[in-house]
Write a structure and sequence with these properties.
Two copies of one chain form a homodimer. The first copy, chain A, has 210 residues and is mainly α. Chain A folds into two domains: 52 residues, Arc Repressor Mutant, subunit A; 138 residues, Orthogonal Bundle (Tetracycline Repressor, domain 2), CATH 1.10.357. Chain A is 72% helix and 0% strand. The radius of gyration of chain A is 20 Å and the shape is globular. At the A-B interface, α1, α6, α8, α9 and α10 of A face α1, α6, α8, α9 and α10 of B. The first copy, chain A, binds a DNA duplex (18 and 18 nucleotides) through α3.
Chain lengths: 210, 210
DNA sequence: GTCTATAGGCGGATAGAC
DNA sequence: GTCTATCCGCCTATAGAC
């Protein structure tokens, strides 16, 4: 076992990061207790400060790693040579899968980004985000000008896809409360959305719709 | 001035509630400082404890009032005698307007609801939520069976409307970062969505779409 | 590297004068 | 009702033994 990329659960450092992901993403930065993270990682509280100088530094590391995963999903939009439709289907499905793993993650990311508006740009300078956006934006424009989809702005299309994919997972407590859903029903509803959302988006882009 | 319903800003109690709304909804329950709320309300910290026994009680009052406003918007869905389409348009527009006033509110509502899963049901028992849902659900079913809209489940329709309306406002920091938007551009984009989202939903319900 | 014990401070809450 | 001063617990962080 010399796989340096694999997450080694026996490694304290990796256990801490996994524990911190869970605790931060459910309780937020302020609500999280170093003791909670230590317990979750089956480690002494003092060891947290041995591996990571302080809470803020631990948080920023987790923050960055979570977002890197999310952003890398964007590459499904430009990476391979699939059709426009298939790219959207892949993106929706990936996005829902990732968010489902840490459903509260967008909550704390957005809360912290609001408290510290520079956080995002501080952590993600020089990442290939602009390029991905540009390429997907161009792709949308090509589809529009060739008449394969109806005229839409890239921005609104992107926001629609993200909203329909991410929000339902994040808003689980509210949705289950308002619609009176059990946990199982909620989960299969989310599962359905991996295709349902893509269907909606594709249908909406059809140039021959009303 | 004997209007007991109007919010009297000279009344300390009302100033505190307004201040607490702002502070809680931007910093969350744990991140909010009683001192911040006191400053924002231009009042002494001790007075907070005079008017509201403790932080938790102040929080629960704000929580309940914010959610009551959101839920009451649901009544746009069933209240008057407008057409199905107009009800959806009214609901989308109202929802975006309310959320825009306290954009971070869903963040802290959802975060707290996750930390304390009983919170929602504890605070909202006996409210006319079930009735509104039932009436709107029936309405959807009638539209479907009469062939005026294509077959959809009420649940997924509701979730789509909510996601498209609420999430973009909530996710402002992320959207502006990824799409490189200035504050002004973002706001007019949101304003556009008041009709754009309704258009999308209505178009999607058309039984003669592809 | 691991752990115990403890420092140190922040922030919620209260006492008590006015 | 309003304010100052202060208490006290909780939680981050570190010192220091092993």
């Amino acid at each position: 076992m010399v796989d340096t990329l694999a997450t080694d659960v026996s490694d304290a450092r990796e256990r801490i990061k996994a524990a911190a992901s869970r605790v931060f993403s459910t309780k937020g930065l302020d609500g999280a207790r170093m003791q909670d993270i230590a317990d979750e990682a089956r480690i002494n509280k003092a060891m947290l400060h041995y591996y990571f100088r302080n809470k803020q530094q631990l948080f920023e590391m987790i923050f960055e790693e979570l977002l890197t995963r999310v952003f890398s999903a964007l590459e499904a939009l430009v990476a391979d040579h699939a059709s426009f439709e298939d790219r959207i289907r892949a993106f929706v499905s990936t996005q829902i899968t990732i968010i489902s793993e840490f459903p509260a993650m967008p909550l704390f990311v957005l809360l912290e980004a609001r408290k510290d508006p520079e956080l995002l740009s501080r952590k993600f300078v020089g990442k290939p985000l602009d390029m991905v956006r540009q390429r997907f934006s161009d792709m949308v424009d090509r589809e529009v000008s060739s008449g394969r989809i109806r005229p839409v702005t890239f921005d609104q299309l992107f926001i629609n896809i993200l909203s329909l994919s991410v929000y339902p997972v994040v808003a689980e407590p509210m949705i289950r409360f308002v619609l009176g859903m059990e946990s199982g029903a909620f989960q299969s509803m989310i599962e359905n959305r991996k295709t349902l959302v893509a269907d909606l988006i594709i249908r909406d882009l059809n140039p021959f719709s009303i």
